[in-house]
């Protein structure tokens, strides 16, 4: 196997500079998009140098930590669950969600249209041929709650990879490692790119810093101690370095005015190495960076009681039953229910003057509706353990969820509502929750549970959700009063703002070529994955339908490789 973690033997001079090593293509970033691009380039006969500032233990990048959700349209899994989906319906949902409204959205819209074609066409068959399999129950993320032409998925489309994030990374990592054994790929870890080499207007290579060895576990923040310098040249360079989610300064710098003031307190859904450095480096070389104010951050973040990276947060993937209250105990307005509109909820939260909210729920809801994003939080799916998986349909919460309830600093558990409110106030130390305000919200919601019909749109939505077989089976608790003692104990969960994805990025055409500000290609430079806004500089527009980030890495990585070839 050809591992070059720091520099080839004898290639570092007394001055600490490495001699240039030539290959057809340099790929910057060994995450999912980079692995897809590299494996596809090798298949198409190209030699590749794959660089990453992290060590070989981080091969796969953010994708490794993901839940493995993929957006598919009219799949066999959907049809088996009784879901009728179509390309036209998915396109309607995507465009209604994206809200493209800028002149620079021309290429992002073309990417969106191409991606929906891919998701409703060859995507599943292509992955299936690589050995990827899916959990049979399709999830329903971003339900919207507006009109048919507005934001949200009209039907469930969230396909969980069997093996979660590692399961989607594995076939591409395996192919790259096999190509390294054959000498077709050079893997150069702990190589941090600091500049793109531009010769006569053409990107011809990279230069940067060799970082000292660091054997820290995957995801742990690593040393930035320099060991030397390097220069490499190639016929083309592909930027697949990810977004800005681990860099709170950049997140705040790019924070959109429409979402209010940048939050003072954030937790991170991605490791520290997701720093956005390459975006600025590419822009300095002449690349056009667009839609930098479009970003995707979750509102249901909880502090990880057993953190791996700095400010490590986990997102709750909620079912629709929890009562959502702001920091003062007032109920969030319709249709800002759990799992309906991530950025709509975020926009509302910042108007309240506080940066956190609360779920109030019962043990019965927790057991059926709480899932945690992340491969490490789902050992049954990640480990492909059917015996462990079957416990999800049995009484009791999944082990990782119960561990957060027991150890998590954001969880309060009590037998009565007065006791719960007191414990919730104890979590923040601010005393913003007044018992009477919370009691009124809880009792008003409970009064709507008597009949099967109601004016409460959240209660209507959760009853409607159970018409879908998958939700009734493992996702949505049977409707009940929060103050029903048989459903207890009561649980309060503080929800924090959790950084995750960059929706804007380097503007690219459908061949993955990076464009200049005048719309012409910057010769020699390509981009894919989150660095390219998952395609075009932002194929999601303002919002995501979920399951589209990994898929965007797959599609854009493949497109860039084919564009080069």
Layout of helices and strands:
Elements: E1 22-28, H1 32-43, E2 48-52, E3 69-71, H2 76-80, H3 87-98, H4 106-119, H5 123-129, E4 158-160, H6 164-181, E5 185-189, E6 191-199, E7 202-211, E8 226-239, H7 248-253, E9 267-268, H8 277-284, E10 289-290, E11 295-303, E12 313-317, E13 323-326, H9 342-351, E14 356-362, H10 363-369, E15 371-372, H11 379-382, H12 386-389, H13 399-407, E16 411-414, H14 417-428, H15 435-447, H16 457-465, H17 469-474, E17 490-502, E18 505-506, E19 513-515, E20 521-527, H18 549-564
Description:
By secondary structure, the chain is of the alpha+beta class. The chain is 30% helix and 21% strand. The strands form four sheets. Strands 1, 2, 5, 6, 7, 8, 19 and 20 form an eight-stranded mixed β-sheet that branches. A hairpin with a 2-residue loop joins strand 6 and strand 7 (202-211). The longest helix has 18 residues, at 164-181. The model is unreliable at 1-21 (pLDDT under 50).
């Amino acid at each position: 196997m050809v591992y070059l973690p720091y520099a080839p033997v004898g290639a570092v001079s007394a001055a600490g500079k490495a001699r240039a090593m030539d290959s057809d293509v340099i790929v910057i970033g060994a995450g999912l998009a980079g692995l897809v691009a590299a494996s596809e380039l090798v298949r198409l006969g190209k030699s590749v140098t794959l660089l990453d500032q992290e060590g070989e233990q981080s091969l796969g990048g953010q994708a490794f930590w993901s839940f493995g959700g993929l957006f598919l349209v009219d799949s066999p899994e959907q049809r088996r669950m009784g879901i009728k989906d179509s390309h036209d319906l998915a396109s309607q949902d995507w465009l209604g969600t994206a809200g493209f409204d800028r002149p620079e959205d021309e290429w992002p819209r073309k990417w969106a249209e191409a991606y929906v074609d891919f998701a409703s066409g060859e995507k599943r068959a292509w992955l299936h041929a690589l050995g990827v399999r899916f959990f049979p129950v399709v999830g329903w993320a971003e339900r919207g709650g507006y009109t048919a032409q507005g934001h949200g998925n009209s039907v469930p489309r969230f396909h969980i990879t069997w093996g979660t994030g590692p399961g989607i990374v594995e076939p591409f990592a395996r192919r790259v490692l096999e190509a390294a054994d054959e000498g077709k790929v050079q893997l150069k870890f702990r190589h941090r790119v600091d500049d793109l080499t531009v010769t006569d207007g053409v990107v011809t290579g990279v230069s940067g810093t060799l970082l000292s060895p660091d054997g820290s576990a995957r995801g742990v923040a690593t040393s930035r101690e320099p060991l030397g310098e390097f220069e490499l040249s190639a016929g083309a360079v592909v930027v697949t370095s990810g977004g800005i989610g681990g860099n709170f300064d950049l997140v705040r710098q790019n924070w959109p005015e429409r979402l209010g003031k940048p939050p003072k307190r954030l937790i991170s859904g991605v490791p520290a190495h997701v720093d956005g450095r390459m975006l600025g480096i590419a822009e300095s070389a002449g690349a056009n960076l667009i839609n930098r104010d479009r970003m995707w951050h979750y509102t249901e973040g909880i502090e990880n009681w057993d953190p791996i990276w700095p400010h490590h947060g986990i997102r709750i993937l909620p079912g629709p039953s929890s009562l959502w209250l702001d920091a003062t105990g007032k109920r969030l307005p319709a249709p800002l229910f759990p799992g309906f509109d991530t950025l709509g909820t975020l926009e509302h939260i910042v108007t309240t003057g506080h940066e956190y909210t609360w779920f109030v729920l019962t043990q019965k809801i927790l057991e059926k509706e709480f899932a945690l994003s992340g491969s490490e939080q789902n050992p049954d799916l990640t480990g492909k353990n059917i015996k462990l998986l079957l416990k999800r349909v049995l009484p009791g919460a999944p082990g990782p969820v119960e561990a957060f309830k027991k150890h998590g600093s954001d969880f309060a558990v009590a037998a009565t509502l007065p006791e719960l409110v007191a414990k919730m106030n104890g979590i923040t130390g601010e005393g913003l929750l007044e018992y009477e305000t919370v009691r009124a919200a809880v009792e008003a919601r409970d009064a709507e549970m008597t009949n099967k019909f109601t004016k409460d749109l959240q209660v209507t939505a959760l009853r409607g959700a159970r018409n879908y077989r998958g939700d009734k089976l493992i996702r949505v608790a049977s409707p009940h009063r929060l103050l029903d003692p048989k459903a207890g104990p009561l649980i309060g969960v503080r929800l924090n703002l959790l950084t995750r994805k960059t929706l804007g990025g380097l503007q690219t055409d459908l061949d993955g070529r990076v464009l200049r500000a005048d719309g012409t290609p910057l010769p020699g430079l390509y981009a894919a994955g989150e660095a390219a806004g998952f395609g075009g500089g932002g194929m999601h527009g303002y919002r995501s339908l979920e399951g589209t980030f990994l898929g965007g890495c797959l599609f854009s990585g493949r497109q860039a490789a084919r564009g080069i070839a």
